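Sorry to interrupt, but I need a hand with the structure work. I would like you to pick a protein and set down its sequence and fold. Please put the record directly below this note.
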Amino acid sequence: MELLKLSSRKEHGKNQVDKLRAEGIVPGVIYGKDREPLNVSGHENVILKLFQEVGTSVIIEVEIDGQKTSVLFKEVQMHPFKNNMLHFDLYEIDMNHPITVVVPVVLIGRDEIKVQPSNLIQVINEVEVSCLPKYLPSTADVEVTDMQIGDTITVADLDISKDENIEVALEADEVVATLSAPREESEEEETEVAGEVPTVAETEQKDSEE
C-alpha cells in the first residue's frame, strides 16, 4: 500500500494558502464517516504523481504528524489554465465496513485483437462497485483479444462480476463493448456519388443552353 506523508494545516485564509502553493505545497482535507474534517497539506509534485498512478479507486495510507490511516482520493481540483493542483480531498476508510467506489473498465488486449480489420466500440467506461475495502478492485477487466465480428462483451464478462465479494451496480446483461466490421460504402452509394458528377458533354450542353 502506498504511503503518503502529509502535515496538519492551520493556514486557512486565501493569502496564507496562496503562499503555501507558491512554495510547492498544496492544501487538502481528510474527512470520513466518523471523524471531523482535518485540514492537511503536502508536496504538490508528490501528491499529483501518486494521484495519477492510483486514481480514485486504490486505497492508500497517509501519515499525518506520525499518525497513519487508510484513505481514498475523493477529488483533486486542478487550475483551469495552469497544470497545477489547487486542492485535494481524501476520504478515510473503515476497513471493517463496505465502501462504494467507481472503478474504470479496462479492455485487455484491445490493441492486439486478432480479427482485423475490425472496430471495437466501448460502451461502458466505468462501473460502480460495493465491497469491503480489502476486496476493492482497482479496475474492472475483461480480455478482448479473441473477440470475433459481432461479439458483445457484457457486465457479466468482467472479472469483478465473478467475485462473490464484490457487488456490481449494473445489470449483468448490460453491454460493455462490441466488435464490428469497419463501415464501408456500399456499391449503391458509390454509384449514386458517381452519378452526381456531370460528364464533359453534359457540362458543355448546360453552358450552351445558358
